[in-house]
Amino acid sequence: MSEIICTRCGSNHCKKNGHIHNGKQNHRCKDCGRQFVMDNEQKIIPEWIRSLILKALLERISLRGICRTFSVSLTWLLSYLVEIYEQLPADLNVKPIDSKHTTAAIFSLYVEADELWSFVGNKANKQWIWIALDVHTRQVIAFHVGSRARDAARELWQKIPEAYKQHADFYTDLYEAYVGVIPDKQHHRVIKQSGLTNHIERFNGTLRQRVSRLVRKSLAFSKKLTNHIGAIAYFICHYNLTKNHTALLV
Fold first, then answer.
1. How far apart are CA 240 and CA 161, in angstroms?
2. CB 36: neighbour CB atoms within 10 A?
3. CA–CA separation, 127 and 228 (whole Å)
4. What is the pLDDT of residues 128-151, one digit of tens each?
5. Residues forming beta bridges with residue 144, ordered by sequence position
6. Backbone phi, psi, residue 162, to 5°
7. Of the four, 153, 208, 211, 231, which is 20 to 30 A from 103 by CA?
8. Partner residues linked to 36 by β-bridges
9. Nearest residue to 80 via CA among 121, 43, 25
10. Are the CB atoms for 137 and 247 separated by under 8 Å?
11. Phi/psi at 21 (nearest 5 deg)?
């Protein structure tokens, strides 16, 4: 066995001092107090593991659960998530309206909008998820995370593609925040029992069931707002791709 040498002072007066997060032996120098790992080479995560992790992120699995399943550190996973979230397309993979559509088809656009409660850090820090969904394609055309005030409704409206702003009819519940944001001629306020917001309410259920950060009673909640938004965007981008493929098969 090779002699353990302190990486700071060069002393060989060292002892074992437990293990670090990835299971490697940690040492401590008795002379200078330095803690170090002799074999400190960075672990390379193979691409096939990364691809499985991307799939796991689409299911209701906590980040620590993913770490245990794939033997990766939480530090590495969080940095990998940041990298993935930064690469997400701004258009959420929404299939654009075909320019070959007839005028009648364009004017038959229907969008349902609703809000979903969530929190970041603790339940006092409420973050509402505003979502707009195309009824025909079932694609999420825009979402926004923020307060439940009218300003957040305006942010959602700004993110909606222009073709929908010009031609779509929008169905919401009776919540006042939408009034004055969506043009009156396009805005239809309905009660939930009408069935005219069923699609968006069903998607809200899917989102809460599939994204662990949104489960109401869970330890898998988000600690940072940017990661909270990124996780939602990641799921929506994948969800929209599946809806694109379904549309092509019809």
1. 15
2. 16
3. 9
4. 999 999 999 999 999 999 999 999
5. 130
6. -60, -35
7. 153
8. 27
9. 43
10. yes
11. -60, -30
